[in-house]
Design a protein that fits this description.
Layout (H helix, E strand, L loop, with lengths): L7 H17 L5 H10 L18 H13 L6 H16 L2 H13 L4 E4 L15 E5 L2 E12 L6 E9 L6 E9 L5 E5 L10 E11 L4 E2 L5 H37 L1 E3 L1 E2 L4 H29 L3 H30 L11 H12 L4 H12 L7
Parallel strand pairs: 1-4
Antiparallel strand pairs: 2-3, 3-7, 4-5, 5-8, 6-7, 9-10
Helix pairs in contact: 1-3, 3-6, 4-5, 4-6, 6-7, 6-8, 7-8, 8-9, 8-10
């Protein structure tokens, strides 16, 4: 089935999740929505059936996040727990790791955070300084992470560290499952202007002792495993942005249809109608690229998915920011009131342009990897 034409199953999933989102709405309680979405099977729709998941892929999970966002009730941890951590464990974890984590990630009773960004290593994963060294059969993990979402509600955090290659002496990335209560594992909440239910944290790892089975996958394939999680992250960030943009445009259209100033509704004027139409078009175009990226990823084309996922995240971030800006502008002063719930989206819409990778780094990727231009960094 072409990613352009949704299957009947996808349409049914979209409608069911939209109904769930509408029941909870903009003022949802995160824990209640998370629990219900888990019981209904939506959180683990991308995880293997033999471990309690839905047996689908990122295509299905992106529908879940987009529709919840369009209802004003996005779940940020969908990007992290099932999409990044669940995918990495399902693809590369041991049988014991899969049995221990995937059923809980699928039904929402367990949550996992993801720590990669460091104070001195933002987009440059080669500068990660969190190191893991062997101590007998154990690992000792030391370092710092910043902007880690939901650590306080997560049972563990999947930490990207680096180990020394015995043959070359170089450091190579590896992924470790770090339990929340591990000795030496500290967290500090970052004071954010962003109005989100999920909090951001700085983490410190001070000789955190982990058993050998905390390592996910093959020690020599860390980069492959890392990017297996980062492509779904970009696709799901696109879904997050598209859902938010749709929510904003929906509110603006509703207002423009009803608000009358000079005899006719303001939506009858092209100065109001055309920018909203353009924002809608941009969101639809971004969704097409997101669907392509999810299709390629689920088909096992990691290289093709990498290019498409970056493009989808870029397009969705730009479309979301424009949609929110135009929605607020449509409502005028009302767009900045708490009653209409759009003002907080001005800050939130910037997130998709900044995280998990900036639009400039995506342009670097496309100019270098896709167009073959010289590398600038």
């Amino acid at each position: 089935m072409s990613p352009i034409v949704e299957t009947e199953e996808h349409k049914a999933l979209r409608a069911a999740v939209a109904a769930l989102g509408a029941r909870h709405g903009r003022n949802h309680v995160r824990e209640e929505l998370w629990s219900e979405a888990g019981k209904l099977g939506y959180l683990g729709v991308n995880l293997p059936e033999e471990y309690g998941g839905g047996g689908g892929g990122i295509a299905e999970l992106s529908i879940v996040l987009e529709e919840l966002g369009a209802a004003g009730a996005p779940l940020l941890m969908l990007i992290v727990s099932p999409a990044i951590c669940g995918t990495v464990i399902a693809r590369f974890g041991t049988e014991e790791q899969k049995r221990a984590w995937l059923p809980g990630l699928a039904d929402g009773t367990r949550t996992m955070a993801f720590g990669i960004t460091e104070p001195d290593a933002g987009s440059n994963s080669h500068r990660i300084t969190t190191t893991a060294r062997r101590d007998g059969a154990d690992w000792l993990l030391t370092g710092r992470k910043v902007f880690v979402s939901g650590v306080d509600i997560a049972d563990a955090t999947l930490i990207v560290g680096r180990t020394e290659d015995a043959r070359t002496g170089r450091l190579k990335p590896c992924l470790f499952i770090v339990p929340r209560d591990a000795p030496g594992f500290g967290r500090r909440k970052i004071d954010m202007e962003l109005a989100a239910q999920e909090k951001q944290f700085e983490l410190t790892l001070d000789d955190v002792r982990l058993p050998a089975e905390a390592l996910v996958g093959d020690e020599d394939a860390g980069l492959l495993q890392l990017f297996a999680g980062l492509n779904p992250e970009r696709i799901m960030t696109a879904a997050f942005a598209i859902g938010m943009g749709r929510y904003a445009i929906g509110k603006a259209v509703e207002y423009a249809r009803d608000r009358t100033v000079f005899k006719s509704p303001i939506g009858a004027h092209q100065a109001i109608a055309h920018p909203l139409a353009q924002a809608h078009i941009d969101l639809e175009l971004a969704r097409l690229m997101m669907q392509k990226a999810a299709h390629l990823y689920d088909a096992g084309d990691d290289v093709g998915a990498g290019e498409a996922a970056n493009m989808a995240k870029y397009a969705a971030g730009e479309a979301c920011a424009k949609a929110v800006d135009q929605a607020v502008h449509t409502l005028g002063g009302n767009g900045l009131t708490r009653e209409f719930g759009l003002a907080s989206l001005i800050t939130a819409a910037r997130v998709a342009r900044i995280a998990p990778v900036s639009r400039e780094m995506i342009l670097n990727y496309v100019s270098h990897q896709t167009l073959g231009l010289p590398k600038s960094y």
